[in-house]
Amino acid sequence: MNPKLAFALSAVFAATACSSPNQPDSANNPPAAEQCFALKQAQIENTRITKAEWSNDGLVGADRMSSLTGGSATDRQAGAHCVVEGEIGARTGADGKPYGTKFQMRLPQNWNRKFLFQGGGGVDGFVAPALGSIPVRTSTAMPALTRGYAVVSMDGGHPMPTPDFGADPQARLDFAYQSTGKVTQVAKQLIRKLYQSAPQHSYFMGCSNGGREAMIAAQRYPTEFDGVIAANPGFRLSRAAVAEVWDTQQLMKIAPKNSDGHKILANALTQADLDKVSQAVLNRCDAKDGLKDGVINAWESCGFRPEMAGLSPAKTAALKAVFDGAKNSKGEQIYSGWFYDSGINGEDWRRWKLGTSQTAEPNARNVTLGYGSLKWYFMTPPVPDFDLSRFDFDTDTPKTYATGKINDATDTDMSAFRQNGGKFIIVTGISDPVFSAKDQRDWFAAMQRDTPNAENFSRMFMVPGMNHCGGGKAFDDFDPLTALENWHDKGQAPELMLAKGKSFPGRSMPLCAYPKIAVYKGGDEKRAESFVCE
Asked: Burial level of 412, CB count in 10 A (0-12/13-18/19+)?
């Protein structure tokens, strides 16, 4: 067995087994209810504190938007803490509607001197419980609040999880990036007021749009954060929105009609079709990592072609058009293509691309979330009555460029973040159906090229089979927060993360830092120690 891998795995096992709330040092007096209540009167510029209550039982309610944020879908106990809620910059927008950035902050009695900004999801418009769960819904790792972090969450600068905030220019800016800066400043002031101390480390962690916000934090506020975890980030959100329309148009071409004569998007590819594609990809690529076990670790060298799946010519053509990515009439790429992977038959892949509706009104998220976002927010000016079935990829795509400039986290020079001591971890599912893992890989390669000594501060972990923020046929139970802590606190750069998954009971696998992959070298196929990163 590779001795370096053995040492790394033992460290990961130990960190996972011993993960527990970090206690403040003995010189720090833990806050009590009285100090918490006093925060209701805190004077912070352009901010109104609406709630300051002490939670003695530490109960944190379920995140009702967990399918979009990757947060906890169940109630959790987190120890005694102070709950603060408020609003920054309340105002009336250009559309006559009320706006402002609402937030929730939870400050634990036993503070570990760290601060975590919890990313949102979807188009935001809601304040999720500030628990700081690992933003991969299948992770069983301990949440940040339970570890002793002060955690903040926010609504992105608008009060509803709908895209019509795009009618107000300031709300656009807040959603794109400004609300992150505003809430960070207020959160750090509340920390200083309660604990009489600034945080030693400030982290940002999120998935999906929250992953984009995490990348925005590192790129636009590089001196405010020294650790970022971006999971399945929608970092090129404006182009992904165009790609959603592209995918739907390609699939609608082959969608069969129901008895009323309406095309049914959900039936364009049946579950049997997707199962057939998944199995064909496995047949082609599974054994390339040394072990045929249902996991395609050698995803970059797969070499699968849609013709190999044995679908009808029409379905093969549609599948190829989707996986080749959105293009204009000249064949120029608008949004990245996708890797073929086993997770294409996962529930989450269908949820985004196809949905389940048997009526003329599709319920695929590419339609229910994507269409409104494109019309209200990504197109400038908003065109709420736009017929996206007629979207022209030559003439209409440029209408998204202005929003893309403020929204997309595409900077590749992150030297300011690195200079501030920042550590950057990306985790992406190869089978993510809405944000392309190929696009993420290509951006990461460009960032490493454009940022000197990028290997000293950045790591990317690609998860074969994983859909969006967890799920799929994947080792999708892992702990990037402990990896970040060990990097900062112990100088241990994460070369791998130990992972498990419900799809593979009793097994463990190393997730290797890109460009390395887990390769089977012999021994017990169920144990991570039987693999090396190379």
From this structure: middle
Candidates 308, 336, 326; CA nearest to 440 is: 336
From 226, 432, 476, 477, active-site residue = 432
Q: Are 365 and 455 in contact (CB under 8 A)?
A: no
Q: The pTM is what?
A: 0.93
CA distance 109 to 371: 44
- Catalytic annotation, pick one of 139, 208, 238, 342: 208
Helix (H) or strand (E) segment spanning residue 426: strand 423-429
Phi-psi region of 271 (alpha: psi -120 to 50; beta: other; left: phi over 0): alpha
Distance, in Å, from the CA atom of 290 to the CA atom of 293, rounded to the nearest integer, reads 9
Averaged in consecutive runs of 10 residues, what is the pLDDT profile of the chain (534 residues)? 45 40 46 92 97 95 87 91 98 97 98 97 96 95 97 98 97 98 98 97 97 98 98 97 98 96 97 98 97 96 96 98 98 98 96 96 95 96 94 97 98 97 98 98 98 97 97 96 97 98 97 98 96 96
Q: Any idea what the Cα angle at residue 162 is, between residues 159 and 168, rounded to 5°?
A: 70
- Determine whether 208 is an active site residue: yes
Q: What's the DSSP call for residue 511?
A: E
Q: Does 432 participate in catalysis according to the annotation?
A: yes
What's the one-letter identity of residue 388? L
Classify residue 263 as exposed, middle or buried by CB count within 10 Å of its CB (0-12, 13-18, 19+): middle
Question: How many CA atoms does the CB half-sphere of 321 hold within 13 Å?
Answer: 21
